[in-house]
């Protein structure tokens, strides 16, 4: 059983850039990566939900992973999501991730013929993780999408017996009791990465040190301030920053979902990741104008430009 250093800070769930023709736009990634590095995030989560990973072909996923891995370093970790409805595809992507030098891989439960049997999910992940045995493996807990409603602390406890490189979990669920149990398990061995931006403060209270999220694409500075305020025991200021984030998340989710709305916000933030791939739909010109107006109303552009955020 391996023990890995826990990730501290923000991991950005990056979007996959597309050209208007529908092809992936790898040329956009260098500028994207450098901007994130300059903003002080701790790394990226590639080909996940925000990255439309399940809408890409296996070869496209490999190409996107290869475009991000060169930016991996001690302070900027590249985690590749390899989940699929096919365990064989996931194993192939996992092996590829290790070969190209990714820091870690992650895998959600299959979303077609989904299972809430923890032993089934453990066996699926065991096969995937065994294809990349030399790098950390994270379970991606996303029951609202996958339909796999398991208790993650049970997965970690039993899974650690058969998955030597099991490092932890990307926990994208509001079962904070389960999250707390994960954090306490085996004397705090596992890395629990918080997956809901709008309630990051809840995870901090329980003891998380790292998080993976979509809105870290455009306002990571706000969340860094939130984490610093919490670390300094200034709960009033931390709650203030969290509410600022919530207002942005509320606007984003009104525009279809976090991927469609988030990608549009990313363009307004100065990085054009192009359209979304069907069956996701793209916003109309009127919706884009309305989105920009609503973002202005909640102070988004001040947050984006680094204007100091003062507690009222």
Secondary-structure map:
Layout: E1 9-13, H1 29-38, E2 43-46, H2 58-68, E3 77-81, H3 87-100, E4 104-108, H4 118-129, E5 137-141, H5 143-146, H6 152-159, E6 166-171, H7 176-184, E7 191-194, H8 200-206, E8 210-213, H9 220-231, H10 235-254, H11 258-268, H12 285-297, H13 300-304
Parallel strand pairs: 1-2, 1-8, 2-3, 3-4, 4-5, 5-6, 6-7, 7-8
Please estimate the helix content: 40-55%
Say which CATH homologous superfamily is assigned: Aldolase class I
How many β-strand runs? Answer: 8
Q: What is the C-level CATH assignment?
A: Alpha Beta
CATH architecture: Alpha-Beta Barrel
End-to-end Cα distance: 48 Å
* CATH fold-level label: TIM Barrel
Spatial sequence of strands, sheet with the most strands: 1-2-3-4-5-6-7-8
> In terms of quaternary structure, what is this?
single chain
Percent of sequence in beta strands: 5-15%
Brief summary of the model shown:
With 312 residues, the chain is an alpha/beta fold. The protein is built from 13 helices and 8 strands.
3D architecture notes:
There is one protein chain. Helix content is 44%, strand content 12%. By secondary structure, the protein is α/β, with parallel strands linked by helices. It has one domain (9-232): TIM Barrel. It starts with 8 loop residues before the first strand and ends in an 8-residue tail after the last helix. Mean pLDDT is 96; it is low at 308-312.
Spell out the key features of this protein.
312 residues, alpha/beta, TIM Barrel, 8-stranded parallel barrel, 13 helices, 44% helix, disordered C terminus
């Amino acid at each position: 059983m391996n023990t890995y250093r826990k990730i501290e800070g923000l991991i950005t769930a990056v979007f996959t850039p597309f050209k208007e023709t529908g092809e992936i736009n790898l040329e956009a990634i260098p500028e994207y990566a450098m901007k994130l590095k300059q903003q002080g995030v701790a790394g990226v989560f590639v080909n996940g939900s925000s990255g439309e990973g399940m809408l890409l072909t296996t070869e496209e996923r490999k190409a996107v992973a290869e475009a991000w891995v060169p930016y991996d370093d001690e302070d900027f970790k590249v985690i590749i999501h390899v989940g699929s409805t096919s365990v064989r595809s996931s194993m192939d992507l996992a092996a590829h991730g290790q070969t190209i030098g990714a820091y870690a891989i992650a895998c959600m439960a299959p979303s077609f013929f989904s299972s809430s049997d923890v032993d089934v999910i453990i066996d699926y992940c065991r096969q995937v993780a065994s294809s990349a045995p030399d790098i950390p493996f994270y379970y991606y807990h996303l029951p609202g999408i996958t339909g796999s409603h398991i208790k993650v602390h049970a997965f970690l406890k039993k899974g650690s017996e058969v998955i030597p490189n099991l490092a932890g979990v990307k926990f994208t669920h509001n079962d904070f009791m389960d999250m707390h149990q994960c954090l306490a398990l085996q004397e705090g061995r596992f890395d629990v990465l918080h997956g809901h931006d709008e309630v990051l403060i809840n995870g901090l209270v329980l003891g998380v040190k790292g998080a993976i999220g979509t809105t870290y694409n455009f306002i990571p500075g706000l969340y860094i301030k939130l984490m610093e305020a919490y670390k300094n025991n200034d709960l009033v200021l931390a709650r203030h920053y969290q509410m600022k984030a919530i207002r942005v998340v509320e606007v984003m989710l009104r525009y279809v979902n976090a991927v469609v709305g988030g990608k549009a916000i990313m363009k307004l933030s100065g990085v054009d990741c192009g359209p979304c791939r069907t069956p996701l739909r793209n916003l109309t010109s009127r919706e884009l104008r309305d989105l920009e107006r609503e973002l202005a109303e909640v102070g988004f552009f001040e947050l984006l430009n680094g204007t100091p955020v003062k507690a009222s």
